[in-house]
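Write out this protein's structure.
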Amino acid sequence: MNTTDCYISHKAKLGKNVSVGKGAVIYDNVEIGDNCFIGPYVIIGEPTMSFYKDPQHENKKTVIGANSIIRAHTVIYEDVSIGEYFQTGHYAIIRENTTIGHHTSFGSCSELPGKAIIGNYVRIHSKVMLSEYNDIRDYVWIFPFVVITNSKYPPHGDLKKCIINEYAQIFSHAVLLPGLSIGRNAIVGAGALVTKDVDDDRIIVGNPGKDVRAVSDLRNENGEQVYPWRNYLKDYRGYPWQEK
């Protein structure tokens, strides 16, 4: 274990060959798997609001899977479980009551307010603003500046879950309104405002978003079919392409 000028609670458990950078803070009840890199000024196990009100507060368990890379200034709260081969960019924030699968990445300056489930091989790019109660399933891509909302009449309650199904892609600057389901293999175009559910294998564009065609109808400049995307990226980043 390599640690330099950082704080690690005596109640934390670090695996073999874990590197912890300068200024990092690892709170109580954190478990970090083997071969992880924890960058400078990272905080893992950040306490929730109860810590500031209850002197008897005990941090809930936080788990970072083996072979993960947590880059500088990332904050991961208590009560978070993350699988193996996870990566963050810089200044990422992941709040409590969240479960994240393996081989998933979470980009720089992106924020997840918590109470969420994120699957395996999910790619969340930089400066994405998710919401509470997201259910993001395997192999989804979410590109920069996407915003997912969960309240129809903010700041009132009655928060709604957003479900994004397998292989869907949400392109840059899209906004998803509360309580929607985005279908398997669907594409939400750049800058789209999505106001209703999206069916499997459909492309949504515009403001408000409109269903314009099947995903399989989309062609590149050479007239070649390029979607569903998994059919054309056979060897990309080691994806396990066995059909479910």
